[in-house]
Amino acid sequence: MPGARQPRLRPARFQARTDLAVSAAALSWRDLRVWQRVASRYDIVHVHLPWPQSNLNLLLKRFEGALVVHWHSDIVRQRFLYRCYRWLERWLLQRADRICVTSPKLLVESAALDGFRHKAVSIPIGIPEAADEIGEDEIRALRSRNGGRPIVFALGRLVPYKGFEHLVRSAASLVKDGLILIGGEGPLRGALESLIRELGVADKVKLLGRISDREVELHMRACSAFCLPSVQKSEAFGIVQVEALRAGRPVVSTRIHGSGVDWVNQDGVTGLTVEPCNPAALAQALNRIVGDAEAARRFGGNARKRYEELFTARRMAEQVRAMYVSLRL
Q: Residue 154's closest CA among 130, 184, 178, 185?
């Protein structure tokens, strides 16, 4: 941009241990000491929210440079604590020179951003191409190990907002030979195992536990569809969907107000979207993809195209740098 000072990017790594955890928020006095060094060395500071520590740092140690706030999600669960914290959040948003939001849908629907959208930009999260090459023989072997059945793959921490309970419940209505594979660990594993036994769907749902990045990519490439059944706007973007788009796989996800999940996965283009907490709707959407090879190919081709157009790491980096330049230091 003419007249703008080009930012110099100086990579550095700062670390501080957590001293205290309040609900899901990690707080650290050591981090404040690190921040005191950072504040004097840089022209631009880019903080990611929700993270109350960054609010405290900026409140206790003034920063004279340009401030970018990266808005990932509204605070959902901690409603009582949020009432105490809201004034500090609004102060930081007022202080920000630019607010970076991960999707245009989140920008429009986030209640916390009311009054601040005039200085916000939407920059989708991008990821690089998969690090590992997955061979066709590996894909065939995985499918063979699962009896050649159509695979629905899901991935994430086993926590309430991910909605895996509803995916498990959908299994009873899934096509006869359909198989749901869920990767990830978390506090709900025991409850999900009990639900699988209770519903009698142990032959249709498998919990894989923690799997490696290579195994994630292998399952993405081998599945017939990827499913993100999240139920709360804590799931504000769903990076794992981008991994599925990168692999050229159709996605079934949910429509959540205040979240960009159904912006990432375009209904009728890259896959299908359904209302949250609705196992029957999940099963219907998954059955449509599994049972219609032509639709699955069309969704998969569009998925890969959407990744290349919007969600590459290079595109995100270019947009972030352009945002820094626009600050006119």
A: 184
